[in-house]
Structures are given as C-alpha cells and as structure tokens.
Write a structure and sequence with these properties.
single chain; Elongation Factor Tu (Ef-tu), domain 3; 8 helices; 22% helix; binds FE2/S2 (inorganic) cluster
Length: 255
C-alpha cells in the first residue's frame, strides 16, 4: 500500500451523474489489481475525514482511472476538480479478483461496473479473454458511454437495460442467464446487493464458481473503524475493506 500525491489529468462526464477521473498516480497504477480500491482525498490536505473509497476502474502507463457517480457532497466535490489539482491517494487496498483458468463471465450493474474494465484487461492479458461481459444499468444513457472502453478488451459485450433502451431488456442476472454459462465457468460480478444475491443464487444452482465485489460504506479502508463489517457464513463477521471487497460468493450469506 502506498500513500502518494496524485495529479488530476482530466475529468470526463459520461452521463448526467457519472464521471471518469483520470489521475497521474504511477505508484498505485503499477501495483493495483482488478477489484482493489483506493482512498482518495477530496482536498490537498491529508484529512482522513475527506477521503472516499473508490474501486479502480482502470490503470495503464502510470495513469489511474476512477469511475464514480455523484451521490453526495464528497462525490459532488470530486466532479469539480481541475487538471493539475493534486489530491492525496492511499492504495491499492483490499483483495481483488482471483483470475481462474476457466471461461469467464463478467457482470456489472450500475456503478458496480467500475472495477470491471481493469478486470477485462487482466483477463485479456492472460490469454483468457472474458467469454462475455455484461454491463447492466437502468437505461442506455448509463451503460452505452462505457461500451467503447470495454470493446477494447472483449469481442462479446452485452449491454442490459431495465427499460430496454439498449441491448438486452432486463436485469443483470437475467442477461447472464441468457448467455447460458456452462458449469465449470467462473462469474466475476460487481453491483448492488440484490443483483449479487440473484447472481450468487444462479451460480450455486448451475455449479458455477462466482466471485463478487461487494459495495459497502467505508470510513477508513484499513480495518480500523469496523464500519464495513458484514455477517459471514458460519457466524462472525468479515470486513469488506480487509477481507474483500472481492469474496467467493459462497463465503457470504445472501438471505
Ligand atoms: Fe474501516 Fe473497513 S472501512 S474497518
């Protein structure tokens, strides 16, 4: 884990409320693995109260890319940064996806698509290009702006929208089911809890291995505040920041 001052390269607006932030962060970009996250300070000072957790969307050539939705004061602040601004960065943190030698189905819903672009790159780099990648959202405006970036790493990109305005009309788990993954495949998923629960249930029935990146509020990102604790199978708790954010789906209760 590194603490480095990163420099804003540019900010790109993808939809009414989603953005991509490009940062010069050579230390973290060289070390990060898909599924890991960073704590990014929203001002130049190192005030931990002003740090927010973000999945790493992509990393290449010393550049780190974050994909975020404006949902409150902190992310609204982030959507106003300017090229050249310097921000404190801590990372990479947590446990990412473990790449397995099996046909890979990658599924993201909503802002949960964030870590999947780096995962798509890692799968392609291992000569194990994702068999299919599903990007699911409410409407075309949410998922279509991401398509070009993902096409770079897969020949089989499926957009799924709740309102049917682009691609498959339906939820992420329904889109995955329509692809009919065989037993022995592996599903890598990230998104809201109901989506992950549906995918975990589908994978259990089909005997498909499933890794999920779970969303959680995180204050410290390092195991100190206990704010990200959630129940584990068999009793006790796991900490999303330390034990995750990527888990084997069978390690978590979904009821
Ligand atoms: Fe503080 Fe996980 S975010 S313990």
């Amino acid at each position: 884990m590194l603490q480095e001052t990163c420099r804003v390269i540019r900010l790109e607006r993808l939809s009414t409320d989603t953005w991509r932030l490009f940062l010069a962060a050579p230390g973290v970009a060289a070390r990060v693995q898909a599924g890991q996250f960073v704590m990014l300070g929203l001002t130049a000072g190192y005030d931990p109260l002003l740090r927010r957790p973000f999945s790493v969307h992509f990393a290449e050539d010393g550049e780190l890319v974050l994909y975020f939705r404006v949902v409150g004061k902190g992310t609204a602040m982030l959507a106003t940064v300017k090229p050249g601004d310097e921000l404190p960065l801590l990372g990479p943190l947590g446990n990412g996806f473990i790449l397995m030698p099996a046909p890979a189905f990658v599924v993201g819903g909503g802002i949960g698509v964030a870590p999947l672009l780096l995962l798509a790159k890692e799968l392609a780099g291992r000569d194990n290009q994702a068999t299919a990648i599903v990007l699911a959202g409410r409407a075309a405006a949410e998922v279509a702006p991401l398509a070009d970036s993902f096409h770079r790493w897969t020949d089989n990109l499926v957009l799924a929208t709740d309102d049917g305005s682009s691609g498959f009309a339906g939820r992420a788990d329904e889109a995955l089911s329509s692809l009919n993954p065989a037993s022995g495949s592996v599903v890598y998923a990230c998104g809201p809890q109901p989506m992950l629960a549906a995918i975990a249930s589908f994978c259990r029935k089909k005997r498909i291995k499933c890794q999920v990146s779970v969303e959680s509020a995180m204050a410290c990102g390092m195991g100190a505040c206990l704010g990200c604790a959630r129940p584990a199978i068999g009793g006790g708790y796991v900490h999303v920041c330390l034990d995750g954010p990527v888990f084997d789906a069978e390690a978590l209760p979904w009821d």
